[in-house]
Amino acid sequence: MAGKRKQRRGFGRVRKLPSGRYQVRYPGPDGVLRPADRTFATVTDADLWLSRKRIEIEDGQWLDPAEGKTTVRDWGARWLAAVSPQLKHKTQASYRSLMTSQINPALGDRELSSLRPITVTEWVGSMKTKGLSASRIRQAYRVLSQLMRSAVDNGLIAQTPCRGVRLPRMPETEPHILTPAEASSLVRHADKPHDLLIALLAFGGLRIGEAFALRRMDVDLAGRLVLVDENLAEANGKLVFDTPKSHQKRVLRIAPSLAKRLGAHLAGLGPGDDVLLFANSKGGPLRYNQWRKACFDPAVKAAGLTDVTPHDLRASHGTWVADKFGVMTAARRLGHSNASVTTRHYARPVDGRDAQVADASDGWLNGHDDDPGARKGHAAPAEPDEGVS
């Protein structure tokens, strides 16, 4: 009977153990016999398991169990080396720091196949217990999620354990939206040439790193254009020039008065197309913390303002433009590939607008519109950059 059963089976081998249970071995796609991950109470159970394993192999769904024994540390190192060339320097440094400080100490020695959603949930909870911020925890989870997703894509594990995990909520912080008059006052109270830099943040919507990276070659005074194609970032204490965030290079038109002031500043710069528009006393790139403490914060205080950051100027610009010219125009000005980013992070309600809408709706209710400049239906807005400072 044993011989007949073996002949009928046709795939794999079943052996009765001294304990009375049955051990199974099956050939993988490479022909190598591998043991099942458990023993079986009956021959029928063993045969059923073999049948399912054969279908799994024939359907291309089989995973080599040995691959899943790769540790999180080893796969993380391989994954990071593979993706690093596509990442910005600052992002590389951040990922490496998170791997070293949060992922490897807790999970690095674990086999990929041993991780479960509960494992990840416990890890997230431990970071919260240690007092890590919601932002830091979410960043660490995002890195782990990416490397586990890569393990799935490369056939090491069947599914990622980073699923159904509740993450701490980010505190909801609203940017300080200045009025144009407040921003102009801030510019007037800043020392030169930092007044011009602040004006580019407030009336051009540049990121601080983009403004720090501007060079003479990026300015077309005749066309009142500024090319934003570089960003200065700090990674592990080192300053690195890279592409703008999300790699969104753009050409920005600036106001005539701002172009005039920029022209006067260019005239006083040293020679060379690649000379930085804004530099430290030695001609090198600015560092954010030093610049803010020495130049920006004193101007904020002198202007009678409080709780204003350089990023608030970009958020203010986005709000002004979205309010007057629409979110799509603001997205283009700010260098966003998706207008939802503009809406979520930058465009904020302007005080008094709700009352104006209520007054205007009275005219709409009575069948007339007193605002001849209102846009009709889905008509396209005016040329985005013209007239927007």
Please provide a brief summary of the model.
By secondary structure, the chain is mainly α. The chain is 48% helix and 8% strand.
Give the beta-strand count: 8
| Distance separating the two termini | 90 Å
Radius of gyration: 30 Å
**What is the average of the pLDDT values?**
83
Unreliable spans = 1-7, 371-389
Q: Count every helix, treating DSSP H or I runs of 4 or more residues as helices.
A: 16
Question: Strand arrangement, largest sheet?
Answer: 1-2-3
Order of secondary-structure elements:
HEEEHHHHHHHHHEEEEEHHHHHH
Question: What features would you highlight for this structure?
Answer:
48% helix; mainly alpha; disordered N terminus; three-stranded antiparallel sheet
How would you explain this protein's 3D organization?
With 389 residues, this protein is mainly α. It has helices spanning 2-9, 43-58, 65-68, 72-83, 89-107, 117-129, 134-153, 180-188, 194-204, 208-212, 256-267, 288-302, 310-325, 327-334, 339-345, 353-365; strands at 13-16, 22-27, 33-35, 219-220, 225-228, 231-235, 238-242, 250-253. The strands form three sheets. Strands 1-2-3 form a three-stranded antiparallel sheet, covered by helices on one side. A three-stranded antiparallel sheet has the order 4-5-8, with no helix packed on it. It is elongated.
